[in-house]
Here is the input.
Amino acid sequence: NPMQLWTAVDDYVAARLIGEDEVLDAAVEAADRAGLPQIAVAANQGKLLNLLARMQGARRILEIGTLAGYSAIWLARALPADGTLTTLELDPAHAEVAVANLERAGLGDRVEVRIGAARDTLRQLTEEGVEPYDLVFVDADKANIPHYVEASLALTRPGSVFVVDNVVRDGELADEQSTDAAVRGVQQLHELIAGDKRLDATTVQTVGSRGYDGFTLIRVEG
Ligand code: SAM
Here is the structure.
Protein backbone atom coordinates (compact mmCIF):
# COMPACT_ATOMS: atom_id res chain seq x y z
CA ASN A 1 0.00 0.00 0.00
CA PRO A 2 1.85 3.14 -1.16
CA MET A 3 -0.18 5.42 1.15
CA GLN A 4 1.24 3.64 4.21
CA LEU A 5 4.78 4.15 2.94
CA TRP A 6 4.19 7.80 2.04
CA THR A 7 2.65 8.43 5.48
CA ALA A 8 5.55 6.70 7.21
CA VAL A 9 7.98 9.04 5.43
CA ASP A 10 5.88 12.09 6.34
CA ASP A 11 5.95 10.91 9.97
CA TYR A 12 9.73 10.36 9.82
CA VAL A 13 10.27 13.88 8.49
CA ALA A 14 7.85 15.48 10.95
CA ALA A 15 9.50 13.75 13.92
CA ARG A 16 12.96 15.06 12.98
CA LEU A 17 12.37 18.42 11.29
CA ILE A 18 9.15 19.68 12.84
CA GLY A 19 8.75 18.11 16.28
CA GLU A 20 6.04 18.52 18.88
CA ASP A 21 3.80 21.56 18.46
CA GLU A 22 1.03 21.92 21.02
CA VAL A 23 -0.52 24.91 19.25
CA LEU A 24 -0.90 23.07 15.95
CA ASP A 25 -2.13 19.92 17.72
CA ALA A 26 -4.76 21.99 19.54
CA ALA A 27 -5.83 23.56 16.24
CA VAL A 28 -6.32 20.13 14.65
CA GLU A 29 -8.22 18.88 17.71
CA ALA A 30 -10.55 21.90 17.66
CA ALA A 31 -11.20 21.36 13.96
CA ASP A 32 -12.01 17.68 14.52
CA ARG A 33 -14.23 18.48 17.50
CA ALA A 34 -16.18 20.97 15.35
CA GLY A 35 -16.61 18.29 12.68
CA LEU A 36 -14.63 20.15 10.01
CA PRO A 37 -13.34 18.09 7.06
CA GLN A 38 -9.76 16.81 7.50
CA ILE A 39 -8.36 18.55 4.45
CA ALA A 40 -5.73 20.87 5.94
CA VAL A 41 -2.19 20.67 4.58
CA ALA A 42 0.13 18.12 6.23
CA ALA A 43 2.71 19.33 8.78
CA ASN A 44 5.61 19.10 6.31
CA GLN A 45 3.57 21.06 3.76
CA GLY A 46 2.74 23.71 6.36
CA LYS A 47 6.44 23.95 7.10
CA LEU A 48 7.11 24.40 3.37
CA LEU A 49 4.69 27.35 3.31
CA ASN A 50 6.42 28.82 6.35
CA LEU A 51 9.87 28.45 4.76
CA LEU A 52 8.71 29.92 1.44
CA ALA A 53 7.17 32.91 3.22
CA ARG A 54 10.40 33.58 5.11
CA MET A 55 12.58 33.06 2.01
CA GLN A 56 10.32 35.55 0.26
CA GLY A 57 10.63 37.98 3.19
CA ALA A 58 6.86 38.21 3.09
CA ARG A 59 5.29 41.02 5.12
CA ARG A 60 1.83 40.70 3.59
CA ILE A 61 0.30 37.31 2.88
CA LEU A 62 -3.07 36.47 1.33
CA GLU A 63 -4.64 33.03 1.81
CA ILE A 64 -7.73 31.84 -0.06
CA GLY A 65 -9.36 28.96 1.87
CA THR A 66 -8.90 29.17 5.66
CA LEU A 67 -10.70 26.07 7.00
CA ALA A 68 -9.61 25.88 10.69
CA GLY A 69 -6.56 28.10 10.26
CA TYR A 70 -3.95 25.32 10.24
CA SER A 71 -2.00 26.60 7.22
CA ALA A 72 -2.75 30.16 8.40
CA ILE A 73 -0.83 29.45 11.63
CA TRP A 74 2.17 28.22 9.62
CA LEU A 75 2.03 31.28 7.34
CA ALA A 76 1.40 33.86 10.07
CA ARG A 77 4.33 32.52 12.09
CA ALA A 78 6.59 33.46 9.18
CA LEU A 79 5.57 37.13 9.39
CA PRO A 80 7.58 39.88 11.06
CA ALA A 81 5.89 41.64 13.99
CA ASP A 82 4.38 44.28 11.67
CA GLY A 83 3.27 41.74 9.05
CA THR A 84 -0.27 40.68 8.22
CA LEU A 85 -2.08 37.65 6.85
CA THR A 86 -5.50 38.10 5.30
CA THR A 87 -7.30 34.79 4.93
CA LEU A 88 -10.59 34.29 3.06
CA GLU A 89 -13.24 31.74 4.05
CA LEU A 90 -16.74 31.10 2.73
CA ASP A 91 -18.11 29.10 5.67
CA PRO A 92 -18.72 31.12 8.87
CA ALA A 93 -18.49 27.92 10.96
CA HIS A 94 -14.99 27.26 9.59
CA ALA A 95 -14.00 30.89 10.16
CA GLU A 96 -15.19 30.72 13.78
CA VAL A 97 -12.93 27.73 14.51
CA ALA A 98 -10.06 29.44 12.67
CA VAL A 99 -10.37 32.68 14.65
CA ALA A 100 -10.27 30.73 17.94
CA ASN A 101 -7.28 28.69 16.76
CA LEU A 102 -5.37 31.79 15.67
CA GLU A 103 -6.15 33.54 18.97
CA ARG A 104 -4.87 30.52 20.91
CA ALA A 105 -1.76 30.54 18.74
CA GLY A 106 -1.12 34.16 19.77
CA LEU A 107 -1.48 35.31 16.15
CA GLY A 108 -4.85 37.05 16.39
CA ASP A 109 -3.28 40.50 16.02
CA ARG A 110 -1.53 39.54 12.78
CA VAL A 111 -4.37 37.73 11.00
CA GLU A 112 -7.66 38.91 9.56
CA VAL A 113 -10.20 36.21 8.66
CA ARG A 114 -12.65 37.57 6.08
CA ILE A 115 -15.90 35.65 5.70
CA GLY A 116 -17.56 35.40 2.29
CA ALA A 117 -17.16 33.98 -1.18
CA ALA A 118 -13.54 34.63 -2.12
CA ARG A 119 -14.60 36.10 -5.49
CA ASP A 120 -16.50 38.84 -3.64
CA THR A 121 -13.83 39.41 -1.00
CA LEU A 122 -11.11 39.68 -3.66
CA ARG A 123 -13.21 42.32 -5.42
CA GLN A 124 -13.59 44.19 -2.10
CA LEU A 125 -9.85 44.07 -1.43
CA THR A 126 -9.22 45.47 -4.92
CA GLU A 127 -11.73 48.28 -4.34
CA GLU A 128 -10.12 49.05 -0.98
CA GLY A 129 -6.80 49.48 -2.79
CA VAL A 130 -4.86 47.39 -0.27
CA GLU A 131 -1.06 47.26 -0.43
CA PRO A 132 0.27 44.44 -2.62
CA TYR A 133 0.68 40.98 -1.13
CA ASP A 134 4.11 39.33 -1.20
CA LEU A 135 2.77 35.77 -1.09
CA VAL A 136 -0.60 34.30 -2.05
CA PHE A 137 -1.63 30.78 -1.01
CA VAL A 138 -4.58 29.48 -3.06
CA ASP A 139 -6.37 26.56 -1.35
CA ALA A 140 -10.16 26.91 -1.68
CA ASP A 141 -12.64 25.51 -4.25
CA LYS A 142 -10.53 24.22 -7.11
CA ALA A 143 -12.85 25.09 -9.99
CA ASN A 144 -12.33 28.78 -9.22
CA ILE A 145 -8.50 28.60 -9.12
CA PRO A 146 -8.02 30.45 -12.45
CA HIS A 147 -10.30 33.24 -11.28
CA TYR A 148 -8.53 33.48 -7.90
CA VAL A 149 -5.11 33.74 -9.52
CA GLU A 150 -6.27 36.36 -12.03
CA ALA A 151 -8.09 38.42 -9.40
CA SER A 152 -5.22 38.17 -6.89
CA LEU A 153 -2.73 39.20 -9.56
CA ALA A 154 -4.11 42.73 -9.27
CA LEU A 155 -3.24 42.56 -5.55
CA THR A 156 0.42 41.62 -6.08
CA ARG A 157 3.63 43.25 -7.39
CA PRO A 158 6.56 42.05 -9.51
CA GLY A 159 8.40 39.54 -7.31
CA SER A 160 5.27 38.30 -5.54
CA VAL A 161 4.81 34.56 -5.32
CA PHE A 162 1.76 32.28 -5.57
CA VAL A 163 1.48 28.77 -4.18
CA VAL A 164 -1.53 26.92 -5.59
CA ASP A 165 -2.35 23.64 -3.83
CA ASN A 166 -3.87 20.36 -5.06
CA VAL A 167 -3.22 20.89 -8.75
CA VAL A 168 -2.17 17.35 -9.73
CA ARG A 169 -5.26 15.54 -8.46
CA ASP A 170 -4.05 11.91 -8.65
CA GLY A 171 -2.58 12.67 -12.07
CA GLU A 172 -5.87 13.82 -13.58
CA LEU A 173 -4.13 17.10 -14.43
CA ALA A 174 -2.80 15.36 -17.56
CA ASP A 175 -6.21 13.97 -18.61
CA GLU A 176 -7.23 16.32 -21.42
CA GLN A 177 -10.62 14.58 -21.67
CA SER A 178 -11.57 15.24 -18.05
CA THR A 179 -14.89 16.97 -17.46
CA ASP A 180 -14.36 17.28 -13.69
CA ALA A 181 -14.72 20.94 -12.67
CA ALA A 182 -11.73 20.85 -10.32
CA VAL A 183 -9.52 19.20 -12.96
CA ARG A 184 -10.67 21.72 -15.55
CA GLY A 185 -9.80 24.45 -13.02
CA VAL A 186 -6.20 23.29 -12.58
CA GLN A 187 -5.80 22.77 -16.34
CA GLN A 188 -7.06 26.30 -16.99
CA LEU A 189 -4.55 27.53 -14.41
CA HIS A 190 -1.74 26.05 -16.51
CA GLU A 191 -3.18 27.54 -19.71
CA LEU A 192 -3.55 30.92 -18.02
CA ILE A 193 0.09 30.89 -16.84
CA ALA A 194 1.35 29.72 -20.25
CA GLY A 195 -0.45 32.62 -21.91
CA ASP A 196 0.61 35.36 -19.51
CA LYS A 197 4.14 36.77 -19.92
CA ARG A 198 3.96 38.30 -16.43
CA LEU A 199 3.90 34.83 -14.84
CA ASP A 200 6.72 32.29 -14.52
CA ALA A 201 5.89 28.98 -12.87
CA THR A 202 6.41 25.29 -12.33
CA THR A 203 4.29 22.46 -10.97
CA VAL A 204 5.75 19.79 -8.69
CA GLN A 205 4.07 16.43 -8.03
CA THR A 206 4.01 15.28 -4.42
CA VAL A 207 3.18 12.13 -2.46
CA GLY A 208 2.56 11.92 1.28
CA SER A 209 -0.04 11.41 3.98
CA ARG A 210 -2.45 13.42 1.82
CA GLY A 211 -2.00 11.06 -1.15
CA TYR A 212 -0.72 11.85 -4.65
CA ASP A 213 -1.08 15.51 -5.57
CA GLY A 214 1.11 18.55 -6.14
CA PHE A 215 1.40 22.30 -6.17
CA THR A 216 2.10 25.10 -8.62
CA LEU A 217 4.63 27.77 -7.67
CA ILE A 218 4.29 31.06 -9.58
CA ARG A 219 6.49 34.16 -9.58
CA VAL A 220 5.07 37.44 -10.82
CA GLU A 221 7.72 38.82 -13.18
CA GLY A 222 6.28 42.13 -14.20
N1 SAM B 1 -5.76 26.10 3.78
C1 SAM B 1 -6.42 25.25 4.77
C2 SAM B 1 -5.37 24.49 5.56
O1 SAM B 1 -4.49 23.88 4.91
O2 SAM B 1 -5.42 24.49 6.80
C3 SAM B 1 -7.38 24.27 4.11
C4 SAM B 1 -8.43 24.91 3.26
S1 SAM B 1 -9.68 23.77 2.73
C5 SAM B 1 -8.80 22.74 1.62
C6 SAM B 1 -10.67 24.77 1.65
C7 SAM B 1 -11.50 25.84 2.35
O3 SAM B 1 -12.00 26.72 1.33
C8 SAM B 1 -12.72 25.29 3.09
O4 SAM B 1 -12.73 25.75 4.42
C9 SAM B 1 -13.90 25.86 2.32
O5 SAM B 1 -15.02 26.19 3.14
C10 SAM B 1 -13.29 27.10 1.69
N2 SAM B 1 -14.01 27.56 0.49
C11 SAM B 1 -14.70 26.82 -0.40
N3 SAM B 1 -15.23 27.60 -1.34
C12 SAM B 1 -14.88 28.87 -1.04
C13 SAM B 1 -15.16 30.14 -1.63
N4 SAM B 1 -15.91 30.25 -2.73
N5 SAM B 1 -14.64 31.24 -1.05
C14 SAM B 1 -13.88 31.14 0.07
N6 SAM B 1 -13.60 29.97 0.67
C15 SAM B 1 -14.10 28.86 0.13
Observations:
- The helical segments are 2-18, 22-33, 43-55, 70-76, 92-104, 118-128, 145-153, 181-194.
- Residues 2-220 form a domain with the Rossmann fold fold (CATH 3.40.50.150).
